[in-house]
Write a structure and sequence with these properties.
Layout (H helix, E strand, L loop, with lengths): L6 E3 L6 E3 L3 E7 L2 E5 L7 E6 L8 H8 L3 H12 L1
Antiparallel strand pairs: 1-2, 3-4, 3-5
Helix pairs in contact: 1-2
The site of zinc ion has 8 residues, from β5.
């Protein structure tokens, strides 16, 4: 019997990975925030936990647009 592992896609590198290897981001009307618990209600997006290149502003731009820089800084601070 195999256990189903939910997968999500990283917004930066677009790889599909098990949810546990990704950090959840929460999309709010105020912007993008980090949701380490993965449990806040609302629309979520995901980024790799173990891949610093996925926290680069240019990789986040497609997803976060004008907030890419702020999100990049928040991710670096979070993982520091
Ligand atoms: Zn990634």
């Amino acid at each position: 019997m195999s256990k189903h592992v939910p997968e999500r896609m990283c917004v930066a590198c677009r790889r599909r990975r098990p949810k546990g290897e990704l950090l959840r981001l929460l999309l709010t009307t105020a912007g993008v925030e980090i949701d380490p618990t993965g449990k806040k209600p609302g629309r979520g997006a995901y980024v790799c936990k173990d891949s610093p290149e996925c926290w680069e502003e240019k990789k986040l731009r497609r997803f976060a647009k004008g907030q890419a820089k702020a999100l990049s800084e928040a991710l670096r601070a979070f993982f520091a």
